[in-house]
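Can anyone check this?
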Amino acid sequence: MASISTLGIGSGLDLSTILDSLTTAEKASLTPISTQQSAYTAKLSAYGTLKSALTTFQTANTALNNADLFTATTATSSSTAFSATTSGSTVAGKYTVSIEKLAQAQTLTSAVQTSKDTALGSSDTSRTLTIKLEDGTSKDISLTSDQTSLTGMRDAINSAGAGVSASIIKVADGQYRLSLTASQTGTENAVSSITVTGDSALQDIVGFDKSNTATDADSKNPMEISVEAQDAKLTVNNVEITSSSNTISDALEGITLNLKDVTSGNQTLTIASDTSKAKNAITTWVDAYNTLLDQFNTLTKYTAVDVGADAQDTSNGALLGDSTLRTIQTQLKSMLTNAQSSSTYKTLAQIGITTDPSTGSLEVDSDKLDTTLSADADGVKEMIVGDGKTTGITTTIATNLTGWLSSTGIIQAATDGVSKTLNNLTDQYNATSTRIDNLVARYKAQFSQLDVLMSSLNSTSSYLTQQFETSSSSSSS
């Protein structure tokens, strides 16, 4: 049987060209399917873009949906000796602050040793180093003979989490001290005792007992206090306060004091309202909303052209006329008011946020927003945040965003629908392609048979012609 490359040789017909033309004509039926596949693939990608854009806006909406923004305060200290931070519930006011002492951590230091790596313990096979703190907690640390050097004890203590950190101080060539510093400041976090069980030699080097106040050389502690543990001591509005830490968060409601130095007399801490946090969050939210609108416009773009349907499709947004995006856009726009607000503010325009009638984007009047927040931050909060559950612009938007973006939301449903359609189109394309391949194969087989038949007929015709010519020549002779 002739191959496709030799079709027509036997018959003299251009069967290869005819077969190619038939194949091209049949495969034209795949073009509408391919066009639909491209359109639905673009739509699937567009839903991903839409979901990403909504997620970005959700971040800004969540940040604004915070009642503490509208009661925010700022703390100002008249001295560098202390600073303060406030929470959203802090009440504005002034305080006098005087710091007499800062909290400090206890440090114990051993006597000088000639080597930091030589074992200092006895030949006993094991011993236990016990560190007890003033708050009653204690830690037992097992030491091998190799761990009785200053280096060995330092590493074992630091690995034990005993409430102290150990280090080695080189005071001169061949002179080393072991130093233990409490991990936290304050008297309650100081070491009350260090005991070595099973090794008297090591006990005489690192032992400590806070109750041992003897000054006799034979009775004093091997480890000496080089820095006394100390609590912070201060007065706020002439009320004495003691703290084990220099960060005090439980003395003044909503205020955390950070002590850095002692003061000379009374200093002033001023707590004032701070509307900048709410304004910044509102401005960021407006920018995020406008960015979302720009994405909506890109996804639904329509450009009129006169060069045919295909060109029209490629110039348009993938979600032009899409009901899912249109639903989200319409509902989102309707949420920019809070008619149920108990404050005097019901719309964003009342606080300085207007809508451009031609584009739908929001515009902020900075001065008006400043004035409104300064005059009635609670009223603005009531309109924007509401009760944080069912009322308020950002609360309502947050609820809807969560629904739209959920695994059972309208975006996922639309995405699933497009994916299903794409799968069906793939099946349809494959089935059509298989049908075309089979049809072309049948055409090829038929053409090959035609070629063979025509070749045979041509041979018969040539033979008969030759015979007739021979017979005629004989008759003439």
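Reply from J.R.: I decoded it. Residues 355 and 362 are 5 Å apart (CA to CA).
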